[in-house]
Fold:
Amino acid sequence: MKVLVLIAGVHDPKWPIANGPNDVPMVGEHQILSPFDEAALEMALRIRDANPETIITARVAGGPAAIKIARAVAALHIADVATVTIDQPWDQSMVARALAPLCDEFDLVLMGREFGDYDDGFVPPLLAGLLDLPFFGRAQTVDAGPPLRIAREANASVEALTLSGPSLVSVTNDRRTRLRKPLMKNVMMARTAAIGDIGSHHIAPGAVTLQAIAPRAAGRSQTECRMLEGDLAQQAQALAVLLWEARA
Structure:
């Protein structure tokens, strides 16, 4: 089985974000794996644990700035790791179109449910649509089987999918799929490993152009707050009075 893990990373919050042309924030060199990236990686590793013949390939968006993340991925004993440049990371359609050529000939494509700092969850389903692949979103757990089953929680139910062909799965963070720690020998090897760079695919620009990012014109609205005092019965009585007054 051949598994592709698409990784975007996020800006490390310990470092300030610099603005580039037109005040658009520039993604700098200080990037880390997001919780969604980590969950997708761990899912791929669990599939390989159950099926040692599984081949994992990882592609890290961000070009040269993603080298640090790529080495962290390689330390998990993943041999085929490369970076790829995304020209307009804020445009989900452009991101999906740039990723599509990377996904050929894989049995399973895994990626975080949010792809990088500029995403709001649209990239995985857009990519699945471009590839004409079945899509399963917000996956939380995997049963490597066989058969291979992916599951998620939805309200009071658990929804599960048995994969019977090539599929694209977006993964959300879950305490049951926390990324494992790499072996120290693999960490040392990853520090000198050759990390390939796919560069960027030339995608025709879309009709939407980001002109600038500006601070909000006004602060958030203020809300009155009152602490309820006393024991539980007194707090309940005070809350009932407040609700009755608001109803009037």
Q: What stands out?
A: The longest strand covers residues 55-61. Helices lie at 35-50, 67-74, 92-99, 123-131, 184-191, 232-247. The two ends are 65 Å apart (CA to CA).
